[in-house]
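To the team - DI6 complex, inputs and output below.
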Amino acid sequence: MSTPEFDLLIRNVRIVACDDDAGAASPPSFVAISNGQIAALGPSETLAPGATAKAELDGAGALLTPGLIDCHTHLVHAGNRAREFEMRLSGASYEEVARAGGGIVSTVRQTRAASADDLFAASARRLIELMRHGVTTVEIKSGYGLSLADEVKMLQVARALGQRYPIDVRTTLLAAHAIPPEFAGRADAYVDAIVTQIIPEAARLGLADAVDAFCEHIAFTPAQTRRVFEAARAHGLPVKLHAEQLSNQGGAALAAEFGALSADHLEHVDESGVRAMAQAGTVAVLLPGAYYFLRDTQPPPIALFRQHRVPMAIATDCNPGTSPGTHLPLMLNMACTLFRMTPSEALLGVTRHAAQALGLAHSRGRIAPGLRADLCLWDVDQPAELAYAIGSSPLRARLQNGVQHPL
Ligand code: DI6
Ligand code: FE
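Output:
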């Protein structure tokens, strides 16, 4: 009788598969990996006695989760906005800073001025931090270029990061993030450029996995957002939306109308928006880091998402203006403390539901045969500890595509 030779056999781990309840771990189990995928798993005593593997990893009873997925970041950018942080501390609001020429547009200036190499180097530092906190798939948005050449530069840097480091990068075109200075007062003309030049070129170059927009009174109207979505659809690209972050614009319903993968932020969404999301299968991506950093006071309506069974994902929103951080496990804590999510919901939010928010549920986000062997081994006893701890890093090992990389 022949027994399979696996590439890697992980023994003695307690698995949190993240199927639908991430609140408890399995009894001691094994996970077998072949060709970068999970080949088999089960309680330790069910492993065939003659099973062999090219390599083995003893989990020593540690907790095994899917690799974490950060499904909403603006990780590629130049400079920082510590000065603006100080301004806000002395009383200026986010909108006031934006209207005074600070905010997103100041990062646009620095990102445009940076060479691709400099942008790569600055962003790589943040990417490495994400990986150290267990992230194996990250979504990176453009949106600080706001011209054809600079948006393409950002997306190319994002893709290059994914080629250089052991992390899977998904790119999202966010040309509709802010109105660039050269289009001040001519937002519709900028939207023309987005739909006739930037989206078609990003699609032609194959640089974007999705298209996003910032639908808000300080950014793009629902009518402008609709034009962006129509162009995305014409080029076969799925959409996502920064919706109802500062006010209720009906963005969530608009996103749902276009079958959006996700609507993100959502502090001000109402029940009709939530219902539309539920019907469309649109994931709610919640960003507690931005809520915290802006000292927002209206949390997203978690009870409505639960009631209408809208899957909730959690992400860092890593960006220089409203969430300058790369600690995804810390976001679990904030989702629980600030939004009153459960630790189990929070963990599903960075695994299964984050995969869904990127259209990747078929390949990752859970521990199951046939899925990518993107895995994290944690020095904790129970999964709730991952959300409970404030800013610790109990990651012991991280595997991407079945390969363990030094932390
Ligand atoms: N909402 C946000 O929180 C970030 N973008 C957005 O549309 C902020 C980006 C920035 O301030 O640089
Ligand atoms: Fe964002």
